[in-house]
Amino acid sequence: MKKTGKDRKRYERVAKFYDIFEFPMEVFAFSEWRKSLIKNVEGSNILEVGIGTGKNIPYYRNWYAVGLDISEKMLKKAVKRSKSVRKKIDFVLGDAEFLPFRDHSFDGIISTCVFCSVENPENGLKELFRVLKPGGRAYFLEHVRSENDTVGKIMDALNPVIRAVGPEINRRTVDTIRKTGFRILKDVHLMSSIFRMVVAEKPATSAS
Ligand SMILES: C[S@@+](CC[C@H](N)C(=O)[O-])C[C@H]1O[C@@H](n2cnc3c(N)ncnc32)[C@H](O)[C@@H]1O
């Protein structure tokens, strides 16, 4: 795992305040979106990549679940949350770009608001594809470049400033998910398509 990645350092710095910063969005929209994404998760052996402080944990069902994050401080908060809601999860400190799991290990993968931060999203998505079983599904909630032309251009202009302290706000993550080999089953545009809720399947015939 890379020890010097900017994404890791950034989240080590903000871990203490992350839930406070995010609280307005959580109340306004995220909690409903999380619930609606996770209620459709199929399978019994589930990986969450970039679990952060564990905001999705309260919606987990009785899966065998693994939660991975590159930031130890974010992960510690997720461990605390899992105890408070009495969910048994195996936590792993690791990098989405170098997942420490064998090919075809999981029935399903959850990832919310992560691929705007992963340094090389193509590499990360290839890793998700690799560790997912053929026929398995990945469930994303992603912050992306808006399809609305005016909003998209504003996001392009703001991106260099925001990237200095936070995520990239103008990535075309849904296109990258598709290019990785996933079949997009569901793609819901939210908030002027600044956010996308995506369910993507690894084709059952996939060799990799
Ligand atoms: C914006 S937070 C989202 C956290 C959580 N998924 C949520 O929905 O609240 C992004 C998370 O992705 C993690 N992250 C960033 N790059 C990563 C990588 N390469 N591998 C694993 N986790 C990563 C960060 O440490 C952080 O916890």
Order of helices and strands: HHEEHEEHEHHEE
Question: What oligomerization state is this entry in?
Answer: single chain
Percent helix, as a range, is 25-40%
Q: Could you name the ranges where pLDDT drops below 50 across 5 or more consecutive residues?
A: none
Strand fraction band? 15-25%
State the separation between the terminal residues, measured CA to CA: 22 Å
CATH architecture: 3-Layer(aba) Sandwich
- CATH topology assignment: Rossmann fold
Shape: globular
Q: What structural class do the secondary elements suggest?
A: alpha/beta
Largest β sheet strand count, sense and barrel closure:
7 strands, mixed
Count of DSSP H/I helices = 6
CATH class categorisation? Alpha Beta
Distinct compounds present: S-adenosylmethionine
Lateral strand order in the biggest sheet:
3-2-1-4-5-7-6
Radius of gyration: 16 Å
The overall strand count is: 7
Integer tally of domains: 1
- In round numbers, the mean pLDDT is 94
Q: Would you identify the CATH H-level superfamily?
A: Vaccinia Virus protein VP39
What does this protein structure show overall?
The chain has one domain: Rossmann fold. It starts with 5 loop residues before the first helix and ends in a 7-residue tail after the last strand. It is of the alpha/beta class and 208 residues long. It is built from 6 helices and 7 strands, in the order H-H-E-E-H-E-E-H-E-H-H-E-E. Helix 4 crosses helix 6. The chain has a 7-stranded mixed β-sheet with strand order 3-2-1-4-5-7-6, sandwiched between helices. Bound molecules: S-adenosylmethionine.
